[in-house]
Design a protein that fits this description.
- The longest helix is centred in the middle third of the chain and has 47 residues, at 186-232.
- The termini are far apart.
- The chain has helices at residues 17-27, 30-43, 92-99, 114-120, 148-157, 163-174, 186-232, 245-252, 264-275, 287-296, 303-314, 316-320, 324-331, 335-346, 355-359, 396-403, 411-448, 450-455, 465-472, 476-483, 515-528, 537-546, 553-562, 568-571, and strands spanning 47-50, 368-373, 378-383, 390-393, 487-490, 493-496, 504-506, 512-514.
- The protein has 24 helices and 8 strands.
- The protein has a 4-stranded mixed sheet with strand order 3-2-5-6. Strands 1-4 form a two-stranded antiparallel ribbon. The protein has a two-stranded antiparallel ribbon with strand order 7-8.
- Among the domains are: 17-122 and 409-434, no CATH class; 181-252; 285-351; 504-571, Arc Repressor Mutant, subunit A.
- With 574 residues, it is mostly helical.
- Helix 6 crosses helix 9 and helix 17 crosses helix 19 (465-472).
Amino acid sequence: MKLSLSLQTSMLQTLTPQQIQYLKLLQLPVLQLEQHIRQEIEENPMLEELEDSADASPEDDDYDEDVPTIDKPIINEREDYFEDKGHSDDSEGFDDRISSQEDNFDENHHDPFEFYELAWNETAPSDSPRNDDFDDNDYFQPKDVPSFIDELLTQLRFLDLTKEDLILGEYIIGNIDADGYLRRELEEIVQEVNDVIGDYNLKTRKAILQKEREALNLALEQATASLQSNYDNPARSYSVEIEAPAVVIKKEMPVPVFYDFITFAQAEKILKEVQKLDPPGIGSRTIKECLVAQLKAIMNPTEVQKLALKVMEVTYDAFAMKHYPVITKTLGITDEELKAVIEIIRRLNPKPGGGTAAAATNSVIPDFMVEYDEEKDDIIINVNDSRIPALGVNVMYEKLKKEARYKKFNKETSQWLRKKYDDAKFLLQAIKQRKVTMLKVMTGIAGLQREFFKHGENAIKPLIYKDVAEDTGLDVSTICRIVNGKFVQTGYGTFELRYFFSESLPSDDGEEVSTRIVKQRIREMVDKEPKGKPHSDEKLTKELKKMGLNVARRTVAKYREQMRIPVARLRKEL
């Protein structure tokens, strides 16, 4: 086998660190972008937040001269960011330009921290004067509000429990999920508690043995000293009185506490006690256990409530599958009695913890605001940058430029200064370019979905990422980055940008219909169906065909599952 060297040329696409940073900014929604900018302000002293956005105007003399401009090619990831700009991708060009200006930094200077001293220890102009009336000692003390778990632990400690039961109960409460369920196996919790008890008992025994050794050694030392004293003085008595080791241990060490190991039957008993805490059903392992615990917690239950408990305990599976004839036959009750039972059960809380329901109420801050102007027959698009702080280069940098005429900086300080200044200028330009790119994409989506913004959801059309890419001249991956995780506020509600993208289905009139229209028609039919005899997937398919939508039954079933609509049998009501 012969070894040889050869040269060959190839074209490869690589991303510079600045390109990667810009692509990350494109992906960030407005809230995350605000957090990112706040973090950059904290880490880069060259950045400052301006009170007036006009102060951050790019018409500053240094704004376009010292930093590579992010022009149109940066929008398309397949092109070079700085093509035909005359700038280098690395920082060497910036270093040469900044060193060729008035700021003449001496590499022989030996104080790397003089920049900090110059920038922050001297008086500098400021647009916002300091409030001298502010007292650092006058701060707001937030109220200590007990958490949900703390309230349960407080209730548990009021129960008449042994020390072992109390430990197990605390472990059970600590493993309860946000929605109030105990999804960890009880056997695992018991094993973990027993391991902790075993370790504690072992450490306690070791401590007692250590104290006994120390007490015994002390007693021997006392006896030896007493005997030696008597030997040196023959006139004294030879009786030796020493303190017993047990007495020494009792004085120096509190009474040791040992814990008994917990059995699984004992754990089941404690779990039932936890489920009686407020709210009832907390710590349940299944929905059945949760509902049964709530029904048992009712004081002085009525006959209907007693019957509801019986339905849950005896015929829960049939109730969950809505096999109502099985329930009436098994328990010997009428349909009217079963209706009353169902009404009682519906009033119960299937999620006593409430964590999952609370998370769904989080508000959404839109990244775009789009409205239709009927008078001008035009769509108005705005990028929501109200939360984005106006940025500019710190005024201290101008002062440093003047001071540098007679002050010399060493190499480390000058490199740090150049890097921070370069990062600050690039971030300012990247944020500006991000807004331009986002506005371009939203304009493309609004133009292709013009009927939606005029007439609402019924007028939405099929749309894919490639259509927007062709309309805007951007790359498909850029469209994906901007669409993902961002929202738009319209006259018909707030929608995620992905809502406007859907596949198409053929209709009888030859036009393509968005799959969202089909899903909307299915939802409307389900809402209007008779509750006693809901439509099957086959029935929904026939109704869609009457509307001119040729959809297969399996497609209807797929769309129904995507919208989390249960099958017809589970939608049936008495």
